[in-house]
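Hi W.,

Here's what went into the run:
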Amino acid sequence: MDLDYMNVRGRIFDIQKYSIHDGPGIRTIVFLKGCVLRCRWCCNPESQEYKIQEMTMAGKTKTVGRDVTVGEVMEEVMKDLPYYRRSGGGLTLSGGESLCQPEFAAALLRAAKESGLSTAIESTACASYETVQKLLPYLDYYLMDIKHIDSEKHKAFTGKGNELILENAKKLAVDAKNLIIRTPVIPTFNDTPEEILAIAQFAKSLPNVKEHHLLPYHRLGLDKYAGLGREYTLKEIVPPSDEQMQKLLEVASSTGIKAQIGG
Amino acid sequence: MAQSDHFRIQKRERITKLVENLFLAEPRIEADRAVLLTESYRQTEGQPMIKRRAEAFRHILEHIPITIRPEELIVGSTTIRSRSCQVFPEYSFEWLESEFDTIATRSADPFQISEETKATLREVYKYWKDKTSSDLATSYMAPEALLAIEHNIFTPGNYFYNGVGHVTVDYGKILRSGFNGVIREAEAELAKCKVSDADYATKHEFLESVIITSKAAITYAARYAQEALKEAEACTDPRRKQELLMIAQNCVNVPAEGAKSFYEACQSFWFVQMLIQTESSGHSISPGRFDQYMYPYYKADLDSGKITREDAQELIDCVWVKLNDMSKARDEASAKGFAGYSMFQNLIAGGQTSEGVDATNDLSYMTIEASMHVMLPQPSLSVRIWNGTPHDFMIKAAELTATGIGLPAYYNDEVIIPALVSRGLTLADARDYNIIGCVEPQKSGKTDGWHDAAFFNMCRPLELVFSNGVDKGVQVGPATGDVAQMKSFDEFYNAYKKQMEYFIGLMVNADNAIDMAHAERCPLPFESSMIEDCIGRGKSAQEGGAIYNFTGPQGFGIANMADSLYAIKTLVFEEKKFTLAELKEALANNYGKEVPVENTQELCEGIVRELLKQGVELDEEQIAKICRMVSGGGLGGDASKYEAIHEMIEAVPKFGNDIPEVDAFARDVAYTYTKPIEKYKNPRGGQYHAGLYPVSANVPLGAQTGATPDGRYAYTPVADGVSPSAGRDVKGPTAAANSVARLDHFIASNGTLFNMKFHPSALAGRAGLESFTSLIRAYFDQKGSHIQFNVVSRETLRDAQAHPENYKTLVVRVAGYSALFTTLSRSLQDDIINRTEQSGF
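Here's what came out:
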């Protein structure tokens, strides 16, 4: 059997066990380094650059990013096999953007499928569709971010327009086994009922989209910006209230799509 | 998905009131039992002890004050005031007398005591000098065992000073045929006795004692019937009047005869429970499989339309309130080890029948519902999980866990049943196991398990390796050699094993001495009448009447020892970063960290006392200098060097992070305790087997333990149970569970305890519960034996420390039990706060 894919190398910056909000069951998230977007609220700013960085947290400097083989990652991922078995969970790739390392991501997902795990990625789908397609044969759940319908505003807050993303979403709706649309709800960016409604309507218009998840903005990544010597440009915003989230949930649900708060 | 709607039953107003009433007054000590016991003992001098015990029990039950509390449906109280306690001078009394003036204000489990009660007890105590079980036990112990106890290597204090308890009697027998049934059973056995039988005298006395105590139980219930009638006559509220008349009728019927309704069964159960607690001060009187033995009465009443499910739930809730109404005063040191007024009445739901079929029924769900209604620490609710456990039962259990009260604890049939079979239980008996106290499995109605027989601090023998067996100037352990001369890790490890084996032997000596003292001075005819085969053999459980006999002392500090020995192996012998002599110096200097004064005072006094004893003359200045040295203020050595050693140790991988090599080490370290113990026998003809759990003793006993080579500072808590050291497991809940599962849980057949703490967000919503139950299932797939959870945020606990008045009923998991958070000592509160908080991501 061809096991070369176990030796494919890639760059990750974290492996997180007992993840219960990113796909079904108990999952392990592997965070790949490097992203095409520069979302201003990003809670993992250390994920954005592909290059290996230093980050200072609580007075200690640590290196962010390491190069590993698929086999090495799988050794860690498989430690939780009993939990995947009981919960229907498995491997989720996150980042960064997995599509920035397509060979590595595809090999990881393939290895997970060979081991009988459920697979998922959290992704912006901001890449050529040929790249996206490399992952699809090994992928059970595509958790796709759609952050805004208006391309101008998308560009202002993420560094890129959304044309390619929306176009890929339409294709994925046909090709992906399970497509779930996720929207981080960011005050001053997309937290009005109109903006959320527009995203939900788009999601509803796609065939086969299972769910729409509204993920409330949180500030857990704030310290990391200072740790990287970067400025956090959204200092003034605060997480949306439960009431506001509830209202946005109703707005999204009004389109007929199955919406929920949180993953 | 919706929340589980299984048996979501409305809580009745009565239950809210009963719970409120429990907390109206502070617990106090009442003297009636002690007075009556002593009166009886004075009249029975010279008679066989078993008969004296029976007569004393009768005398107490005929005269002890009784009370029916407002609105209660199930009656029978050991004390007039709620949550209070009686006194048991036949076990020990000096400690209470010496704590008369501090027990109301001490940090762990304070009790009020009136001047009148003090005076009464002082009078009573005059009789008991040299007559207690603890006096006899002391005289039976080997001097070296007493020395080891004095030096805190282990402590058998639990049974040394108190009754044994730790039993689940055959409640079903009393429910079926009442104490008149027991009397008939004893009479039939008596009829078989011939005066020429070798054991005629003792058997005859025992059986007569059983008849006396059975009649006493019936008399006691009849007093309640009278009281209820009297109150009914005076009652102007027609609803309550009717209830009181019903109570009177119940108390006439049970526990004299078999129960004819679910209500009678609840009342009969309760009399058995509280009367065992009146006969002896032993705690962990565990109701066991309540959902099984109560089920026939529930089913019959439900089918015949006699009661509704809501009525049955109210009765169960009432029983739960009663289980929180009893308490026990322990000496100050023990109170720290069993903190939170806990009675450890373990009640378990679910599991399988003795034929191996799933046993989960309506009542299994309703026991969980009852704990949701009362939200109190008792009973120590547990659930049995096996491959055939219904999923919705697990979800129901998880919903209770999510409330944060630390209940239920989860037990794995797939480990415990084979473990018990390996100890000689039949398969049918093993399948019918329940849990005693914290985590100790056994078969109800057939076992005198002597669970919880001692706390063995696995860290202390390691300290003695470094000191060549010397503690505070005294040769306490074997001389295993100067560590500076040790050439290999194996040599060091063997020295540790030698210390362990030596002290395990001494612990057995101490436990057996106490065991014999109980048989001789405190046999329990009432309890024994409900344990097979005491009646057949004609002797009490304390004398070996039970079918299964064990002694189960528990070790703790595995994680500390695993991390310590792994660090020594890696840093001293493999990487040669420092020598054992340097490590010894760093440990003696607490890694350069100053020791809090409250921890050094005792040590200081000890050193001074020892020096004075050896004839050394000391002036005040010299004494002050010694104290400064002990607390680290006057360090002779180089603190930065010790800190550097500490830093290197910190960097070594630790148990609890799913690292197979470290975990394999922990497995082997646990064997240094669990294996040597198996070869010992107790006086009742049974075997020793190990438990690995600490109750809450890891905190006070940690305060007697110097710095350890895992980087733990002196006098801080040691690891609890089989859990990783607090804060050392940093890879999430699955990694911690994987590590713990790599220990051998089968050999620790007296139970293992794994604590996990979750942030509430991890159990939010149905999806959170689903993942949570999968986590338990997967841990059990890997052959973990037990797991329990605290689901409360650090912020909440900190706020409760700051504003205890707002958190009077905040219940948290301590060890094998839950307790009211604000009743715990500050250091135990801190220990719970410092446990690693897991979350879902």
